[in-house]
Amino acid sequence: MAKTIYKLRPSDNWRIGEHESWFADMAAQGLFLKKMGIPFAKFVKGEPKKMRYRIEVNSGDGITPEQKQMYAESGWEYVTSYNLFHVFSSPEELQASELHTDPAEQAFTLEALDNKFTFNTIIMITSMLVLIGLQAAIWIPEETPTLAFVEATTINQLILTIVLLYSTYVTLQAAISIRKLRRNLIEGKPIDHHAPWKKRFRNQHIIGLLYTIIAALAASVPFIQLVKTDTQTLPETSPDLPIVRLADIENSPDYIPEEPTYFSDGVDWGNRYSFNWSPIAPLQYETSEHGLIPGEIQKYGEEYSSSLDTEVYQLQFPSLAEDLISDLIKKNHFRANKNDFIRTEHPELDILITYEEFKTKIVFAHKDNAVMYAAYYGNANTAVLIENTVEKIKLISE
Fold first, then answer.
1. What is this structure's pTM?
2. Mean pLDDT along residues 91-117
């Protein structure tokens, strides 16, 4: 029984001359085409032999037994078909006459393929324009695009865009190539049956491999996020976590966490921290904490209580920090007056922005590749909040 060999095949069906040349080169190595598949072609191993291969294009009705018989009588044996392409072979020493001796006549056989690729191109470009319109409808009104990018909330749209862009490029290339081939045939220029294929074959598969890797990585992001994302009740102390704690801000021996008001899935949602991940910010924390100091009575007779919300990002690209802080301001304090956010210099930070109104104190800090946001409500002053933020940001800044 002859040995079967599978070879990665050229991906562009419409490059007729290159495929014919590839089949002939394989036969010269003792590999004879039996079937074309995706993405491999099936060969049968035998003694090396000089063979000629020709590809006939049909309108879509398939190759008929009568056509096979007619070509066989001319010295061309039917091998296999794929899509609209039908492959015939003939030993070189037989010197069989060409399937098409008139290039202009052969151009007519490519008309259906030309129309098909033109139609596909119109569909792909239309789909691409629709996608761009949908993306614009999402991104133009989006007031926090950097935050969405950092948190990878638009990764599905990115995957779809990559796939459709590449598919549109390939379809457009096919339509242009077939149109050019038909024009050449009409002008009397026959197909080059010995067209060089190795360089294009190598480049195509490098590009295809890179495209596949990028698409696979992008598609894996939501699954990685699902695995890595977690929410837990805040521990009593967390010296190794890069999060500011309410107990450190209050700095009172009487401070205690507030009793849970919403407890679900084993988590106290009033005192919890969430861990998230994205390719742009592999380390992300978000916390919400509420506490009180028993016996400390406020102006209107209520017991003193305070709260602290934080967000922490370790960025792959530190250049995103300024825009990320701008988006965090929009996200969390869109009703506040922008002029009330004060940017000041700090010897241990690259960016420090603060906001203060009554008991509300807010800090945005950036150092190297780390960004931290802390919003505190209570009696402690802003300087204490800054001090704790500086201490914690050192844990993740590089």
1. 0.71
2. 90
